Amino acid sequence: MTSFSVPINESGQVSKENQSGSALPAIVGLSTISLCLIVVLILWISILDDPAGGRPHVSVEITNATAQLDLGTVGVANVRPSMTPDPEDLSIDPLLPGTKMRAIAASPGTITAAPDANIADSEEPIAASIHSNAHRLSVFPLDNMVARSEYGLIPKRSGDGMTPFSVYSRPQQFIPEGPKIALVIGGIGLSQSTTAQALVELPPTIALAFATYGENLERWKKLSRENGFELLIEAPMEPFNYPQNDPGPHTLLVDATPAENKSKLDWVLSRTSNYIGVIPSMGARFTADENALTAFASELNKIGLAFIDPSNSVRSIADQIVRRASTDQLGHLPFLKVDVVLDGDATRASIEQHLIQLEELSNTKGLAVGYAQLRPSTVATLTEWLQLLEQRGVTLIPLSAAINLSMPKL
To answer: What is the pTM of this model?
Structure first.
């Protein structure tokens, strides 16, 4: 309705004022919205430039815990680490003048390292490092040379008399005259990173002994055989101070029945395949007991596996028992006694001194056998020592060749 109390001209002015008054808030609102959109856009761009933008994150300093880890104090699952040395591993060390008795800090087969998860899952770096002069060895066991046990497949002689020792050994090659050395490295599979280092840096002439409680043994078996290494499997055996020193739940015991020890041995043998023999882990008391060792040696000869004795114990009667276990029907049990444990003291200087001793023995006896546990210091020292070994007139030969040279003729 038109207001007649207001002049016509004034009515028009009021209308314009009302319109301008209502438009001002709208303009302010639009400006505010636009400003908010610009701010949001700037924030969005800044967030996209930051890969962690929009997600809560914090910076934490990471230290290399592995470098500070003392592998000698770490145990393996279900295994009580050795806290004291086996009394029978006390021996006179000719390399330490004035020392009457010395405890071997890490006796052969002692579990001193836990599985290491720092190794990459990919096998390509190791597979690519296959030695150019290596003869690739079989990875899978022959069908006619496996038997089924309660724990899985274990090796056996074939129907025509072939043995795992002869079939899975490196091919026989010409061995020159002069001093010769064979080497065994034990504890393979306990440390994943050091096992990989050994496969890359050590020559395939060296035999590798797989730890019974090691990790990824099938993987390491495959890579080892592809690189041309001969393999052994470690069998935990009773030391003199058992159970203070406990090689683990599958330890072969002197007072156990032959059936009980046979069951434990089957478990050990089922851990992997394509090995040529067995080497004790600890075992000073077991290798000094006639009845227990006779049953063990007879079982190995029945299967066709070699027996390597790394014991420092003067009570070991392994060489005598092996001769008894050999029969006209089965032939000689392949056997070899270790001459020098290289890393009873795992320092570099001590390892080098024992390598010199091993070399001198090879010049005196013609053949010397060395044993060491898998450690970074051992691998590094051996690698350097081996580079000049041939120039000094000493030949590194496969373990199987050393066994064949040592076995009596039929």
So the answer is: 0.72
